[in-house]
Amino acid sequence: MFITLEGPEGSGKTSHIPHLVEFLREKGYTVFPTREPGGTSISEQIRDVLHDMKNAEMHPRTETLLYQAARAQIVEQVIQPRLADGEIVISDRYYDSTIAYQGYGHQQDLDEIRALVKYATGGLTPDLTILLDLDVEVGLGRKKKDNEWNRLDAYTVQFHRRVRAGYLEMVNAEPKRWVVVNSEQAWESVQAELRKVILARMKDEG
Ligand code: TMP
């Protein structure tokens, strides 16, 4: 089973995933957490280029292609083999981030972006995608406070508002794959809801 977590900046995905993994492992599941961009040596090197504040001149098309390069590698090297072995893979971001950020955020042609994403992933779609949703200003404020500022965080608030609106459009377009969790709740409530959503989906899938 392939589960992805998505969200605007500061949505808390990264802090929730280790606790979800531990919870599922205690229940006896084999779970493999990963993140995008990253998760393999090559993809982590691409991540550094993408996030480096020094690369302010990076063009949106360059940015889009670098994310797909990092993704193609992790899909082939990590995600596909583990899914084939029957593991649960939980990824901190996946191709919906490209549609939200490079598509809606940078206002690039969505059909072109979808075609690139399909090429990069070989068509691998998550079984469940959870949107950790929150107000854009609240999220950016959290990231600034935690000193985790990267090149993309420095895009305008309008950019980040388009990202969030894009996510919500994607949820409406594919309501079976997506579940929305409000990440402005207390951390413990978000974690409890995430566990519930994942267990329910696993039960449905048998
Ligand atoms: P994060 O690890 O803090 O979530 O940072 C990843 C950043 O990369 C975040 O700003 C979202 C961005 N991103 C994209 O713009 N497109 C993508 O396809 C992915 C995977 C991430």
Explain this structure to me?
The chain is α/β, with parallel strands linked by helices and 206 residues long. It has one domain: P-loop containing nucleotide triphosphate hydrolases (Rossmann fold). The protein contains eight helices and five strands. It has helices at 13-26, 41-51, 60-84, 95-105, 110-121, 136-145, 157-173, 187-205; strands spanning 2-6, 31-35, 88-92, 128-133, 178-182. It has a five-stranded parallel β-sheet, sandwiched between helices. Helix 3 runs parallel beside helix 5 and helix 4 (95-105) runs antiparallel to helix 5 (110-121). The protein starts with a strand and ends with a helix. The relative contact order is 0.20. The structure holds thymidine-5'-phosphate.
Give the topology.
Elements: E1 2-6, H1 13-26, E2 31-35, H2 41-51, H3 60-84, E3 88-92, H4 95-105, H5 110-121, E4 128-133, H6 136-145, H7 157-173, E5 178-182, H8 187-205
Parallel strand pairs: 1-3, 1-4, 2-3, 4-5
Helix pairs in contact: 1-8, 2-3, 3-5, 4-5, 4-7
The structure holds thymidine-5'-phosphate.
